[in-house]
Amino acid sequence: MSPSKVSSISWDSFHNTVDGQPRNSKSKHRGVNPATGEELWEVPIGTQQDIDDAVKAAQKAFETWSETPLEKRKETLTKFRDHYMTFADELIDLMCQETGKPRQFAEFEVKGASMFFDHHLNLNIPEERDEDDEKVMLTRYTPLGVVGAICPWNFPIILSLGKVIPALLTGNTIIVKPSPYTPYTTLKIVEIAQEILAPGILQAVGGDDKLGPMLTTHPGIAKISFTGSIATGKKVMAAAASTLKRVTLELGGNDASIVLPDVDIKKIAPELVMGAFQNSGQVCVATKRIYIHEDIYDEMLKEMVEFTKSIKTGDPSSGALLGPIQNKMQYEKVKTFFEDSKSQGYKFAVGEPEVSKSKGFFVQPTIIDNPPNDSRIIQEEPFGPIVPTQPWSDEEEVIKRANNTNAGLGACVWGKDIERAERIGKRLQAGSVFVNSWEKPTPQAFFGGHKESGIGGEWGKEGLKAYCNAHVLHTYKSK
């Protein structure tokens, strides 16, 4: 089918997609626009029967899709990409409503998904050939089967297509479960994809908290790719163990930024702030702790405070840099970090101890000046726009401080002395370390966490293997 718009796409009704067909249910729920607190459209709550039917359809589609030549799969994904991009404006509008993101950042996410397509379309599935006097060993990577993708609410398009694209490229079929907080863009993208893909290759079943366990325990699903909290990730891993499913878990972080004394303070201060407050702090690899050398601590903090004061928070139409917290549950959690910091008497360098009430879930960006190491704001991930700063003087000590966490997703080092910055960066216990940049994951690089920040990873050349089994052919030479 030509990648042009089709009249059947409606932007005020939403459904699950099973075996290429719309699927509704008796039970419904609604998302909430976090900028206004108003309820959005009804979406169906998937059932066990929906999951069973989707798995059956995916298994059937896998028989053909997995045997489709790689170049043909790439051609199909190219058509999917082009078709998806024709709906960019509608998806941007929809994302603003379901996430509350400022429009420029919603546009960046919607259009940025094309980078994930383009990167993967340039990859080939690796093969490795080893030979000795006796035999040839050919290692191929073959698709697993049906993948279940459990996706989060902070980046609903990037983090769903970031699973869909490599899964399909490698020959798997996939069932996507969007977050019940942000179901709309994902459900619509899967609906759009049905104009290009054969039934059963890509399906979507949204619902409530009961739906995830239906995927993780289903014997017909070969792999679960999950992005979310550490606590839920542990439950996913435990549930998947019953059928020895493959799992990829991308979980929470407590990212440290270490600032060396030689940095350009006025240049780096806004970067540190954006690393902490991008997407209102609702980023797994957002900076959660900032360690600034004592020689520049006061001046750097002053510059960070001034920049933070200039940040506008508001709804998507207001031209704001930051939007609201996406949902009430997370909003209430973030407020507890303000309450704890206030009750403990910590210094608010910028921001108010009380989160002001509004019709939406808005939180002003806040910096806590030098709380103790055992404070909750240091030890835990707020997943909101509040960040602590601390001074440091000894390099060995600050590395230990940065690594003193059960998380290990991302980290940053800032300094003009690149050799020193890289030396420190190599010692930080995190899956992705950024030198002279805040955390900016890219589809070109493998992304995964150390310690309790996850198992395995995705993206980059190595990320394709996360959706494959290694298959080794041992051919012995003729006698």
Q: What is the count of helical runs?
A: 15
Helix-strand category: alpha/beta
Instruction: Strand order, main sheet: write it out.
Output: 14-15-16-13-12-18-19
The backbone outline, from C-alpha atoms, is globular
Q: What is the CATH-assigned architecture of the largest domain?
A: 3-Layer(aba) Sandwich
What's the main sheet like?
Answer: 7 strands, mixed
Beta-strand proportion = 15-25%
Please, what is the CATH homologous superfamily of the largest domain? Answer: Aldehyde Dehydrogenase, Chain A, domain 1
Query: At the third CATH level, what is the topology name of the largest domain?
Result: Aldehyde Dehydrogenase, Chain A, domain 1
| Number of individual domains | 2
Could you characterize what this model shows?
- The protein is an alpha/beta fold and 479 residues long.
- It has 2 domains: 16-251 and 453-473, Aldehyde Dehydrogenase, Chain A, domain 1; 255-442, Aldehyde Dehydrogenase, Chain A, domain 2 (3-Layer(aba) Sandwich), CATH 3.40.309.10.
- Helices cover 36% and strands 23% of the residues.
- It has 15 helices and 24 strands.
- It has helices spanning 48-65, 70-85, 88-99, 103-121, 158-169, 184-193, 211-216, 230-240, 265-277, 297-309, 328-343, 376-379, 395-403, 418-425, 460-463; strands at 16-18, 21-23, 28-32, 39-44, 128-131, 135-143, 146-150, 173-177, 202-204, 223-227, 246-250, 255-259, 287-293, 347-350, 366-369, 386-392, 407-408, 410-414, 432-435, 447-448, 450-451, 454-455, 457-458, 468-476.
- It has a 7-stranded mixed sheet with strand order 14-15-16-13-12-18-19, sandwiched between helices. A 6-stranded mixed sheet has the order 9-8-7-10-11-22, sandwiched between helices. The protein has a 3-stranded antiparallel sheet with strand order 5-6-24, with no helix packed on it.
- Helix 3 packs across helix 4 and helix 4 (103-121) packs parallel to helix 5.
- The longest helix has 19 residues, at 103-121.
- The chain is globular, with a radius of gyration of 23 Å.
- Mean pLDDT is 96; it is low at 1-7.
